[in-house]
Amino acid sequence: xxEQAPETHVIDFRAAEQLLAAQDPRGAxxxxxxxxxxxxxxxxxxLLRARAFFAAAQLxxxxxxxxxxxxxxxxxAFAHFALGRTLQRAARPAEALRHFRLxxxxxxxxxxxxxxxxxxx
Length: 121
Fold this sequence. Notes:
TPR repeats lie at residues 77-110. By secondary structure, the protein is mainly alpha-helical.
């Protein structure tokens, strides 16, 4: 495999964002695989790939990527919220609720607060 120029990875990342927005998560994943192979420390690329896995209903890979983002950025409210949605879809509501509540505590956006269901047990 030939070494790609760094600019290629930026282009691939931007193209992956566009593919995800155009509802082609599998295409986005393909582009992001090479970006992450070259730059495994790139949290933004991992978060985008996690979102693409989720959109493609690949819940276990999405969960693993969101967890990795949270390990690196424990205060990333969106990553907690998205992990919560992933766990919710995987029929793991108690685990999901924990991440929804962390997301809402970190960023009290209305959608995060609603998902956290603070008034319920």
